[in-house]
Amino acid sequence: MKKENKESSEKNKLSFLAKHAPINLVNKLFFTQQLEVMVRTGFPLARALGIIEIQMEHKRFKQIIEDMKKNVEKGSPLSKAASEYPKVFSETYISMIAAGEASGKLDEALKRLTIQLKKSHEIRTKIKNALTYPAIVLIAMVAIGIAMLIFVLPKITSIYAESGAKLPLPTRIMIGTTDFIITNGIYLTVAIIILLVLLARFLKTNRGKRVFHKILLKLPIVSPIIKKINLANFSRSLSSLLQTDIPIVETFQIISRTSSNIYYKEYLANAAEELKKGVSVKDTLEKDRQLFPPLITQIVNIGEESGTLDTISEEIANFYEEEVSQTMGNLATIIEPVLMLVLGAAVGAVAVAVVMPIYSLVNAI
């Protein structure tokens, strides 16, 4: 009886998480790719989902696929079954599946989704790899700095304090800092944790997102990367949605709702309203050259006039994805000198604060 209750409790927990927690991109890519192959080779949809469920190692995603299979067996379309899990399947994903079902080309829609997920995975991997080295160096610098302030510097500064000599300003600042950290270490730690929690909550609000995203779009090194990532995502989604025969207005509305940057989100929502009035895509995009540079608007204009906006958007996506890859590949080389300068300045400041009193003491003798 206890075993049954435990299993029931675990299943309820998995069901709750399945509805409210996202699934990582690698698992979604595996699911979409396998489903595309099976649908293309003629497997019935319910049977394909059953086979993928058996292969899936992720417990939560396994249950999601099982639920989707049951819904499909009851006659529900795949898009409807997937829409039960909005935290797992994005609106773009569901819309493309729905369009594929409506046109009888579900395999093609799944293939485009597979390509889109692969590109997203490649970009995310590049970003993670590029940020790993600077993050490790920064964490090591902070850890070493705190260790020196707590364990090393107090022993040195105590000698100066006992000498009774007048100490230079840098040394007095260093002594004051170390004394403050040692005396108020617990309160300082609690204050930092509270500030981080408040900051995290603020960034979840609409105002917080606006402030944070505005900063990202203004920072010297970060801004070009953020813009390229957003343009790559926009172009890839535009191409995928248009190729599944989704109307242009609905396409812009979907991309707007799935955009991560609030300024791109709002701009594309307004662009969708302009498109309803008959304004061209090129005219809607070129109103803000900071978000959409002339290069992309002119290429979009060519695609719009020639009726090849879906394919030319894919070319734009490939271009910006390659740009992001190259930028992230060179990011460590760009950041390394900055980190070395910061580290050098910190070491130099400590060295000055430690060495200057020695000269003062020698002169006093």
TrEMBL record:
Pfam families registered for this protein in UniProt: T2SSF
Keywords (A to Z) from UniProt: Cell inner membrane, Cell membrane, Membrane, Transmembrane, Transmembrane helix
InterPro entries: GspF/PilC, T2SS_GspF_dom, T2SS_GspF_sf
Regions crossing the membrane: 130-153, 173-200, 338-362
Gene3D superfamilies referenced in this protein's UniProt entry, alphabetically: Type II secretion system (T2SS), domain F
Domain Type II secretion system protein GspF: 31-154, 234-357
Topology of this chain in the membrane: Multi-pass membrane protein
Localization in the cell: Cell inner membrane
Domain of life: Bacteria
GO cellular component: plasma membrane
Family, similarity comment: Belongs to the GSP F family.
Record's protein name: Secretion system protein
Organism: Candidatus Kerfeldbacteria bacterium CG08_land_8_20_14_0_20_40_16
